[in-house]
Amino acid sequence: MRTLQIGHSPDADDLFMYYAIAFGWVNHSNLSFKNSALDIQTLNEKALEGVLDISAISFGVYPLVVLEQSLLRTGVSFGNGYGPKLIKKKGKNLKKNFKVALSGAHTTNAMLFRIAYPEARIIYKNFLEIENAVLNGEVDAGVLIHESILQYDESLEVEREIWEIWQELNQQDLPLPLGGMCIRRSLPLSVAITCEQMLTKAVKVALENKSLLSKMLQERNLIRVDSKKLETYLNLYANEDSITLSQTQLKAINTLFKIGYDHKIYSQILEVEDCLIPLEYEEFRNS
Length: 287
What we know:
The chain is of the alpha/beta class.
């Protein structure tokens, strides 16, 4: 039995898409996973360091790890008319150099934010600490992610949706690529293909058993929101579009990479199709 280290965030969509494996609903005779729940910036940093075999990441960090990591087609989260929110205290006017808290230097929302607000003074905090940093005046504004976008203190208001920035930059009404998964290129290709198949099946099984899985996650105190908010959040970020990348989603990721290159964030333009596990290997192997 080969055991691989897999990292995912503690937010509801990642837990939901993975836990069919943790609960034993999806398994393999020769392969198992040891999972760790870490905040998204820590996961991005571990991907840069090559620590984990498989990891949830921000699409925004992927061009920096392309030589060591392949992208998986499954376990993806996109915003479609929604996404992270730049919030501030109600009535506050933000100066050009306002101080802002972001969830990590390599997140997709941080990349888009820096393009839109080049003069802002950025600090990075765990995403769970951002709302309080705005409330106590440590920062002028903050970008909320994950379940934090569903409800926040009534004294706060949305200054701008990251979705709006994305739409202005892409000009094609594409979904916003937020989170995906990557796998170490050093793993045998047959193992990588099996991992992608298992993780894809886990998302399918989760969606087929949504009510039961959601209940089990809540009973074990793995979820930070109540059942109503969980349903809302999963509808946004863990849905049929999370099972495998569509052509529209691939186009959106390519557009994100091109925007990053045009703004000198990345040193090269990537085509996401070249970054995926080559599934034709399995066909050749079995032919």
